[in-house]
Each structure stands twice: as C-alpha cells, then as structure tokens.
Amino acid sequence: MTIGISANPGQTVIVALQIIDLNGERIDGYVPQIDFVINPAGSQFTGYPENMARLSEGLYNSSIVIPSGLAAVGTYLVSVSWSHPNTGFTQSELFLINAALPFGTSSVSPA
C-alpha cells in the first residue's frame, strides 16, 4: 500500500507506522526503519537507513524535513521496512510526500 501525505517546502513531516501481529495486536521487537527518502529530482537524502523512534507498544514514527524553496516542490518517496512479527518476512510501506507551495503561489525576491 502507498500512503500519500501533503506538505509544504520547509515543513517537517512525521511518518508513523504500527506493527501488528496476526491477532491484530500491536507488538514490540520489530523496529521499522526508513530505508531511503528520494527527492523530486531523483536523488536520495543522506543519513538513511535510520531506525524509527518508538512511541508506545508497536507504534513508531520518524520525521523528515522537506527542504525550503521552489526546488523542494514535488513528490518525495519514503520507503519503510520491518520484519513481520509472525513470519519474519520483510514488510514494506511506501509513503509519497507531495510538497506544494501554500495556496499554489510563490514569489521570488533578490537575496
């Protein structure tokens, strides 16, 4: 499944994930990691893979900072993976972060 998130350039986006066993219960011990973040130009962010932070049993999150400026507009691809609690198989989730300018407008002035 792919999850879409809307953001603006310069914004910090929180990606959250819960780990659930076959009984539908959240479970610890299977820490997910952000494998990579790809920017709209197709380049990978540095610093990944990175483990997500535990919030409570089976619930994890991580923050991703979208760069500022017009060049930051576009779609970012975030890949998260973890081991399934019952099978041990690697599970993956994709997040699409769509960065657009607020209200669709922008202005540029000399620095």
Explain what you see.
This protein is mainly beta and 111 residues long. It has one domain: Macroglobulin (MG2) domain (Immunoglobulin-like, Sandwich), CATH 2.60.40. The chain has no helices and 8 strands. It has a 5-stranded mixed beta sheet with strand order 1-8-7-3-4, with no helix packed on it. Strand 7 (74-83) and strand 8 (90-99) form a beta hairpin. It is elongated, with a radius of gyration of 16 Å.
**CATH superfamily assignment?**
Macroglobulin (MG2) domain
CATH architecture heading: Sandwich
Number of helices: 0
The largest β sheet comes out as: 5 strands, mixed
Domain tally: 1
What is the gyration radius calculated from CA atoms? 16 Å
DSSP strand content: over 45%
The CATH class turns out to be: Mainly Beta
Write down the overall geometry: elongated
The total count of strands amounts to 8
Question: Summary?
Answer:
It contains no helices and eight strands. The protein has 111 residues and is mostly beta strands.
